[in-house]
Amino acid sequence: AELSNEISERKKIERQITHLATHDSLTNLPNRHLLIDRLDHAFTSARRDQSKVAILFVDLDSFKQINDALGHMKGDLTLIEMANRMTSCLREKDTVARLGGDEFVILIEDLENDKEAYEVAQRITDLLKQPFTIENHVVFIGTSIGILFSDERYTDANNMLRDADTAMYHAKDNGKGRYEVFDSSMHNKVQSAL
Questions:
Q1: What is the pTM of this model?
Q2: Structure-derived torsion over alpha carbons of residues 19, 25, 29, 34, reported in degrees to the nearest 10
Q3: First CA to last CA across the chain, in angstroms?
Q4: Known catalytic residue at 59
Q5: pLDDT means per 10 residues in the chain (194 residues)?
Q6: How many CB atoms lie within 10 A of CB 174?
Q7: H/E element holding 117?
Q8: Strands 95-100 vs 132-134: parallel, antiparallel or unpaired
């Protein structure tokens, strides 16, 4: 009995360590490491099943001002609220991950059509611009989203994230509080700027 208790305790600790290694400690969302693993898996499945996947790269528009004005603790509470709101917009099989700072990525699998991803992006845009209260402070925050659809030319999750990030910066440059879909002309612009 003592040995089986020790084994089950050790397994519990191993599960906790694995969870800590694959999840963001603040929001408890999957972290970059787990997201890349899920992205690779999702894109491999999509190629095999001839289905479609989308990535939404989400960046909070006014987060730095909240951190500067209200402090990092309230900034952390804002991130937790945003994570909860995004999670509430999605289906069970979709993934929201926090890359760090105020950057999140949403993985939408088994898309029927592109419109589904636009609808998710619009729901998130609408939900995140609703004001909320953090310790008696009414906070307004918006979001800029870059959308990337699966494509045969992508074989690497990091390249997919890079292009979704590029689309997000285009959304920011075009007025914030909106979403933009990645196309190769965006990548060409970034390269010529470099």
A1: 0.88
A2: -50
A3: 64
A4: no
A5: 84 85 94 94 87 94 88 91 92 92 94 92 92 86 93 85 93 89 75 57
A6: 12
A7: helix 114-128
A8: unpaired
